[in-house]
Amino acid sequence: MAKRESKTKLDSYEAIFSALAHAARRRVLLAIYFNGGSMTAGEIAAMFAHAWQTTTRHLQVLEAAGLLSHERQGRMRIYRIEQKRLKLVNDWLGHFFKKP
Amino acid sequence: MAKRESKTKLDSYEAIFSALAHAARRRVLLAIYFNGGSMTAGEIAAMFAHAWQTTTRHLQVLEAAGLLSHERQGRMRIYRIEQKRLKLVNDWLGHFFKKP
DNA sequence: CTGATATTCAGCTGTTTTGCTGAATATTCA
DNA sequence: TGAATATTCAGCAAAACAGCTGAATATCAG
Questions:
Q1: Nucleotides of chain D within 7 Å of a protein C-beta?
Q2: Interface with chain B: mutation pick from A81, A93, A97, A98, highest number of B CBs within 10 Å
Q3: Does residue A100 lie within any of the structural domains?
Q4: Are B79 and B38 in contact, with CB atoms under 8 Å apart?
Q5: Which residues in chain B are contacts of A26 at CB distance < 8 A?
Q6: Which of A13, A85, B26, B65 could pair with B15 as two cysteines, CB 3.0-4.6 Å apart?
Q7: If residue B40 lies in a helix (H) or strand (E), which one and from where to where?
Q8: Which residues from B are below 8 Å from A93, CB to CB?
Q9: Rounded to an integer, what distance in angstroms lies between the CA atom of residue A42 and that of residue A22?
Q10: Is there a contact between A77 and A70 (Cβ–Cβ < 8 Å)?
Q11: Domain total in chain B
């Protein structure tokens, strides 16, 4: 494979679309959204059949893409949706629906 | 890795978001769009530094995701954007911006 | 037909992703 | 303090992906 300059932040779209490419991650976002915008890691992990460690990593991917942020509250972590970031993709797609 | 039921078409979102996850593929879509909606494979491949075979595969990914379609015209292939499909993702994202 | 042009197909390799399991860390409760 | 709870970290294996090269296919021009 060709050189890949350290996955620069420059390409936010890459991170965001990749994050959204996985069904589990889309499901996480929808679940959090319909839960009012935030959920604990445990609640999220409970929705899936696979190991919670796997979900943990999905959450990290989503967070790295900027689609989620988290905050500790006691011994649990609350994840929250970052709409701003979703807006970015939404705007990108918008290109294709503008009448030029 | 766990079983994976043959990448069913059921999940169109998977295909579409994965396709959009790669910068080259997003660039292809934008280029075609700003070129009026269609372009030949050659014109598209010419935009990239990498081997045209690589671009061919990107085009196939985009087509498999339903984001492009093609038509032969003589010895060249004309690729065309499928807006309908992009609309699908746009609508998915729309969830997050609706006031409930 | 022959050669040039346009483009895809097939197979190889290195990298990334995804899921798993086995710890580790942090916080609360008794 | 010690046990229970909530969650992440680390490392492994299988699969998927992106790039490459070499060959094949199809069409056009002469």
A1: 5-11, 13-23, 26-28
A2: A93
A3: no
A4: yes
A5: 13, 17, 92
A6: B65
A7: strand B38-40
A8: 86, 89-90, 93
A9: 19
A10: yes
A11: 1
Domain contains A6? no
Per-residue pLDDT of chain B (100 residues; tens, 9 = 90+): 333 333 334 589 999 999 999 999 999 999 999 999 999 999 999 999 999 999 999 999 999 999 999 999 999 999 999 999 999 999 999 999 976 6
Query: Which residue range is the domain that position B51 belongs to?
Result: 14-93
Rounded to whole angstroms, the distance from the CA of residue A45 to the C1' of nucleotide D4 is 19
Question: Collapsing DSSP states into helix, strand and coil, what is residue B63?
Answer: helix
Q: Is residue A31 part of a domain?
A: yes
Paired strand residues for B72 = B77
Q: Which of A11, A90, A95 sits opposite B93 (nearest CB)?
A: A90
CB neighbour list of residue A82: distance below 8 Å, 6 or more residues apart: A66, A67, A68, A69
CB–CB contact A86 B96 (8 Å): yes
